[in-house]
Amino acid sequence: MHCQECGERPATLHFTKIINGQKTEIHLCDVCAKEKGEALPGLNNSFSIHNLLSGLLSFDPSGGSAETAYAQPLRCERCGLTYAQFSRSGRFGCAHCYRVFGDRLEPLFKKVHSGNVSHHGKIPRRSGSRLKLKREINVKKQKLQQAVANEEFERAAELRDEIRELEKLLSQE
Amino acid sequence: MSLQRFINQALSDWMKGGGPDEDIVISSRIRLARNLTDIPFPLIATREQLEQVVAKMDKILEKSKNNQALGTLELLRMENLSSLEKKVLVEKHLISPHLAEEARAGAVILSENESISIMLNEEDHLRIQCLFPGFQLNEAWTQANSIDDWLEMNVDFAFDEKRGYLTSCPTNVGTGLRASVMMHLPALVMSQQMNRILPAINQLGLVVRGIYGEGSDALGNIFQISNQITLGRSETEIIEDLGNVAKQLIEQERQARKRLLDSSRLKLEDRIYRSYGILANARVIESKEAMQRLSDVRLGIDLGLIQGVSSTILNELIVLTQPGFLQQYAGQMLSPDERDIRRAKLIRERLLTQEI
């Protein structure tokens, strides 16, 4: 079968689309498919391969297309993984990727983890002591507000002092 | 080697049964995904970097040889194992097929009773796994947690305030925890209730898979139920949610068994005894049929219809009749046809060598 674009080379890519029972077949050779780029004839132009993958991983497609528009792709400077590579493979290259890709990951996490984006579980004992302090301070601050609301001023004063102590510890670390 | 001796050596603790609710829950597993800071994840790291991970773990093991709480731990490098040995570890659920076949600088740390296995350089640097017989999710978590603490004394894990433990795949980030229970649910399948139950379980953020994980069928009426969400909930919440669903399934399975006995006892007995007859006499058996027949026999034992056969026969034989084990027992490579013959023989012998 010949490519329906150039009519010369043999077709190597075959697509079938069915809309309302109407079947259309598309046959392209490698060269024409490449020339046509991501926008395939007969298909909506926004339907690019990239959008399809981003859609699967539920990424922000504007972030993806911005990448092709600018010369500098978003890339993790530690391991070299680009955001595009990540969205293709669905795997991070290193721990630092999480920071580099930052808030773009929010929709993905939401989708995968039922709307959750932040960790509420275990904190490493040794390296997480700072975070533990922070969490403790937050808990005490909430208790303090509660105590004030309940007009338990003695308890509030106690809590205030405890928070000050913890904050002192935190600044020393 | 005699079959009894082979089996004694081949069995991990989880296959020997004995845990709570062992009539329905085969095993409980906790897995924690962890990565070292400053080394790229295994999919992208260089071989040297991955060797560093193994070397670090080796050193920690050396240092804590006298750690009594964990018992003796041994590190095995994949490159030092034969392909058959690796296959057997996969069939015992101690390592993944990916670690056995594709991982670079792959290794596994095993405890003596094989309830602990720590895979090195699989998708993440470390995959800590604790596998217990019966319904013991909390016990498995307690052990996995203490191993995690012990390792964390010696190495820094990639951790982020907001995202928790950082993993190669976004589906594991946060707690890095995958908790799962393997359950034998023949009565729910027979009474066609599983089709109704499975979607409900999925809606609770839990995943149901067949015995060999993703994409595998529920062969032998065995289902693996695990948490999908790892971010936004604490470890204990995740385990509690899964545990509650498992408890409900145990209850429903027990009721379904009772109803089957009440309403169609003769039909059920006929099915169970036929399966027993086939297993005790067949000369050639494919693994799919073997699994189904073993499931029936196990149900017969649980219902008190079959006596004189150990209740762990299903747990044992679903592992021992896999290709790797059959070949290890035979001491030679076997074609699929030969395996079907060996499988039938092994099952016949097992039904005879019972020591109750």
TrEMBL record, chain A:
Record domain UVR: where: 134-169
Keywords assigned by UniProt, alphabetized: Coiled coil, Kinase, Transferase
Pfam families: UVR
Cited InterPro entries: UVR_dom (IPR001943), UVR_dom_sf (IPR036876), YacH (IPR025542)
SUPFAM superfamilies, sorted: C-terminal UvrC-binding domain of UvrB (SSF46600)
GO molecular function: kinase activity
Superkingdom per UniProt: Bacteria
Coiled-coil intervals: 130-169
Protein name: Protein arginine kinase activator
Organism field: Caldalkalibacillus uzonensis
From TrEMBL, chain B:
Pfam families on file: ATP-gua_Ptrans
Ligand binding (ATP): 27-31, 93, 127, 178-182, 209-214
E.C. numbers: 2.7.14.1
Coiled coil location: none
Keyword field contains Transferase: yes
Alphabetical keyword list: Allosteric enzyme, ATP-binding, Kinase, Nucleotide-binding, Transferase
UniProt xrefs under PROSITE patterns: PHOSPHAGEN_KINASE (PS00112), PHOSPHAGEN_KINASE_C (PS51510)
GO molecular function, one term: protein arginine kinase activity
Catalysed reactions, semicolon-separated: L-arginyl-[protein] + ATP = N(omega)-phospho-L-arginyl-[protein] + ADP + H(+)
Domain of life from the UniProt record: Bacteria
Domain annotation Phosphagen kinase C-terminal: ranges: 24-256
Documented activity regulation: Appears to be allosterically activated by the binding of pArg-containing polypeptides to the pArg-binding pocket localized in the C-terminal domain of McsB.
Motif (RDXXRA motif of the pArg binding pocket involved in allosteric regulation): 339-344
Summary of the function given for this chain in its UniProt record: Catalyzes the specific phosphorylation of arginine residues in a large number of proteins. Is part of the bacterial stress response system. Protein arginine phosphorylation has a physiologically important role and is involved in the regulation of many critical cellular processes, such as protein homeostasis, motility, competence, and stringent and stress responses, by regulating gene expression and protein activity.
Family annotation (HAMAP family): Prot_Arg_kinase (MF_00602)
Protein family according to the UniProt entry: Belongs to the ATP:guanido phosphotransferase family.
Protein name: Protein-arginine kinase
Organism of origin: Caldalkalibacillus uzonensis
Gene, per the UniProt record: mcsB
